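Session log. Operator J.P. requested a structure for one protein chain; no other inputs attached. Running the standard single-chain path with token output.
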Amino acid sequence: MRWPPRRYQCPKCRWDFAVRKKRCCPGCGTLLLIASDNPTDAELTEWKSFWMWEPVKERWDYIRDWEEHKRQAIEQHAQWWRRALVKAEKKSSPPTRWIQ
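Structure written below.
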């Protein structure tokens, strides 16, 4: 079964496209990154700011400063893991009763 290509709309000029030759909008030239572009961290650091497609939210997110965005993402991920560990510890520890 074949699916039609995913369509995108540029957040700046509203150009509607499914295929691009470069990582830029075919209409206005804005840098638009999608998952299949697979950019390296060095490239993202060099570009610093760009638009990135969020497939879960189905919208474009503007990344103003890649280094700051990366730092915040790591912090959020660490908080999520801490919460998951606390939940797991609460479930696995037997209830404590005071015996007199």
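Operator note: Strands lie at 8-9, 16-17, 32-33, 50-54, 59-63.
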